[in-house]
Amino acid sequence: MTRLRHVMVPHTHDSAAKTDAALESSARGMRALAVSFALLAVTAAVQAVIVAFSGSVALLGDTLHNVADALTALPLGIAFWLGRRAATRRFTYGYGRAEDLAGVIIVLVIAVSAALAGYAAIRRLADPQDIRAAGWVAAAGLVGFAGNEWVARYRIRVGREIGSAALVADGLHARTDGYTSLAVLVGAGGAAMGMPLADPIVGLLITGAICFVLRDAARQIWHRLMDAVDPALVEEAERLLAEVPGVRRAGAVRLRWIGHALRAEVEIVLDPGLSLVEAHAVAVEAEHRLIHGLPRLRAATVHADPDGPEGAEHHAVLIAHR
């Protein structure tokens, strides 16, 4: 009975090595968040000082966006910290899904920053005012672009290396922030040429850009919450399983993200004449190939079904439950 159970449950690499890899991934993610948070906080502080004496609502919108981007590091950092905790008898898959909850918070923060920026721009449209120190406003826009572009590259690189979609999304968010920072230059240039409406108009354009980021971030988090994966990963898993010696064909393949790691549940169809030990060896090799062939896959549950005899229904007792 014990051997039969092994055919139905995950066959993994050394668990300690997997745990070490997971901890290192989370540690790298937390370092990336800490460094980028510090840089964006300094960038936003510099811009806030210039907003105070210039009165530019375009720069205000960009500053609010940078503050929101910096604050997104906090829920993500907490999620990475929770993800390092061991699984328990209640949370049997661990705490990796905390990243998805952090993603929901990030979406809400982006929405608030868009609302505040839009409100400030509309108020200024209704009551146009000249901005002061247009040169300093332009300089602040360049500072915002430089800070966000560096953070974007850093977050995207680390996020892709550790498999964190939330960190990659946050990096893409920072890159968009950089482009909106460049838009501040347009507002400053218009103000310098005696066009006070240029500043609030650019502020509204920045608000629109934030809304596009919001849409993309919400879509990505929705996919994670609904356990969506790239269909190409499913096709690759099916191909890998079909190439395992002893596997006649692959059955159902299910993949899901838990934090920044993948887990799989797969079915394989085997020769009914194989012994239990031989079937177990095929299942082990199937998981082994999946772990090496699919990026960031940590474990797979491999269910083995016999291919025959003809007319046999091996799951008859379960049909009513499916």
UniProtKB/TrEMBL annotation:
* Record-annotated Cation efflux protein transmembrane domain positions: 34-219
Q: Report the family membership.
A: Belongs to the cation diffusion facilitator (CDF) transporter (TC 2.A.4) family.
Q: Could you tell me which Pfam families the record lists for this protein?
A: Cation_efflux, ZT_dimer
Q: Where in the cell is it found?
A: Membrane
Organism, by scientific name, is Microtetraspora fusca
Chain ranges of the Cation efflux protein cytoplasmic domain: 230-306
Query: Which domain of life does the protein's organism represent?
Result: Bacteria
Entry's InterPro entries? Cation_efflux, Cation_efflux_CTD, Cation_efflux_CTD_sf, Cation_efflux_TM, Cation_efflux_TMD_sf, CDF_Transporter
- Name the record gives this protein: Cation diffusion facilitator family transporter
